[in-house]
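W.,

You were right to be curious about this one. When I first looked at the sequence I had no strong expectations either way, so I just let the prediction run and decided to look at it fresh. Below is the sequence, 137 residues in total, followed by the output.
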Amino acid sequence: MWLEAPVLSSRDPLIRVTAMPADTNPYGGVFGGWLMSQMALGAGALASRVGQGKAVVVSATDFAFPGAMAVGDELSVYCEVAATGTTSLTIVAEGIARERNGEATIRVCSGTFKFVLLDEDNRPRPVGEEALRAHGQ
């Protein structure tokens, strides 16, 4: 059932992509692993932007798949920084599907990703205050 879905943020989505036949599970629905990977890509883009450099995912938790999407539906991934540590960013991600031939939307996935910022030698580096302020965090 398609319903209006609340979006995590009023910002533009970090990822917008159309589900294709190769993205389905054996039952013909969009594979949860594909949804997880799209959320990780969006969260990683935000982590790199806010952290102003290399950011690697160190954990992924709290996945939920409250809705289903079909081949041809468009997925938009929204992300926000939920917390910061000395060298880490915790980012929540939410996926909203829009039906192929209309405007109806539904929340299909959500999850939390933790990233550590790395320097040129791949060692953890601090999250800069100026980076957080520049991105409204």
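Here's what jumped out at me. Residues 32-51 form the longest helix (20 residues). And, maybe more interesting for your project: The radius of gyration is 16 Å.

Coffee later to discuss?

I.
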